Amino acid sequence: MPFSLFDAPTREASHFLGFAGNIIDRQSEKRSDDSARMALTEPSARLLLVAPGRLLLDFSGGSANPYFTLTAAEALGAQISEAILLGRTDGIAMLAVPIAAEHESLPEHLKATDFRSILAQGLADAAGLGALAQGAALLAWHASHRFCGRCGAETEMRAGGYKRRCTGCGTEHFPRTDPVAIMLSVSGDKCLMGRGRHFAPGVYSALAGFIEPGETIEAAVRRETLEEAGIRLGRVVYHSSQPWPFPYSLMIGCYGEALNEDISTDADELEDCRWFPRAEVLEMLAGTHSGALRVPPGHAIAHQLIRTWADSD
After folding, report:
1. Peptide bond preceding 98 in cis form (omega within 30 of 0)
2. DSSP string, 76-110
3. Are 206 and 193 in contact (CB under 8 A)?
4. 250: which of 108, 237, 244, 273 is 20 to 30 A away, CA to CA?
5. Who contacts 232 (Cβ-Cβ below 8 Å, separation ≥6)?
6. Sequence-ordered strand ranges (E) for 3-124
7. Helix (H, G, I), strand (E, B) or coil at 48
8. CB 136 within 8 A of CB 115
9. CB of 218 closer than 8 Å to CB of 206
10. What's the CA gap between 306 and 310, in Å, rounded?
11. Which of 12-16, 67-71, 152-156, 303-307 has the lowest mean pLDDT?
12. Strand partners, 277
């Protein structure tokens, strides 16, 4: 088998995806229990204020600014005691802080904007989106792990937000990431795409599903494709990955080699599933499809999987 490491591009495909541009130095070996509290005392500290599914943005300077000072955060009622230290960028402490601000009561220059809109409208740069993905995922995990899964006692934040410790039995709990396989199956000059019932009109995408315990990425790709579409896969190759803070997933993009083409759609999972020839996919990407069919937007890993295949020889 050829060794392909040094044939790979110097900038991997994941770098071009939304939420994947995180440049924070996480300093994972230097997280003391009081690291977040100490970072908040630094005048230069920058805070992301995160409400459930939304990020507070400041438009007072004309463009969207996702960062706040401690003084501004306190004035807005942010839960400073729940602050998480994300790490440092150019030596500056970066923190995520939960806030329960009512959208209607915010000053005119502040807007609590949902994560998808921030991504789609380009309201934060790549580094800001990466910081958002990290902070939102951690805060969502903390919100759902207030109590110990072993004894039921309350848990307390430790390690600057990267651990919770049970006050009863002492069990330590660590943040989770849910891996999701997303795959584009290919047969000759065709690719397999489907649409869920919640999709926007006309949108078709790559199939996807959670990776189960004890399962390899490749096995999950094969299982999900067979379960959802009745398509058996041979070779599976990795392409890219994307942090997805809904609430704390990692999308793992792959291609699969189809061994059959007769589709058996799981109606509980998909509204429709079919093969698309390359020429039709190129029309969908270009926005010229006669039936107004289209693929997910460019910031999504599904789009990159589809475009990379469609643009290949």
Report:
1. no
2. TT--GGG-EEEEEETTEEEEEEE----GGGS-TTE
3. yes
4. 273
5. 222, 225, 226, 258, 259, 260
6. 46-51, 54-58, 84-89, 92-98, 110-114
7. strand
8. yes
9. no
10. 6
11. 12-16
12. 190
Q: How far is CA 272 from the centre of its chain?
A: 25
Classify strands 155-158 and 172-173 as parallel, antiparallel or unpaired: unpaired
Which element (helix H / strand E) includes 194? strand 190-195
Determine the number of helices (DSSP H) and then strands (DSSP E) in the chain. Answer: 7, 14
CB 40 within 8 A of CB 86: no
Q: What average pLDDT does the segment 292-310 reach?
A: 97
Instruction: Supply the pTM of this predicted model.
Output: 0.94
Phi and psi based region of residue 17 (left: phi greater than 0; alpha: psi -120 to 50; beta: remaining): beta
Give the H or E element holding residue 1.
none
Instruction: Count CB-CB contacts under 10 A for residue 103.
Output: 12
pLDDT of residue 145: 96
Q: Is 226 exposed, middle or buried (0-12, 13-18, 19+ CB in 10 A)?
A: middle
For 4-8, the CB contacts below 8 A with 24+ separation are: none
How many CA atoms are closer than 13 Å to the CA of 3, on its beta-carbon side?
Answer: 1
DSSP 8-state assignment for residue 254: E
Cβ contact 80:74 at 8 Å: yes
Beta partners for residue 96, in sequence order: 48, 84
d(CA 119, CA 132): 10
Q: Cα 276–200–194 angle (5° rounding)?
A: 30
Whether the CB-CB separation of 95 and 74 falls below 8 Å is answered with: no
**Residue 136's pLDDT is what?**
98
Q: How many CB atoms lie within 10 A of CB 190?
A: 17
- d(C-alpha 204, C-alpha 195), whole Å: 5
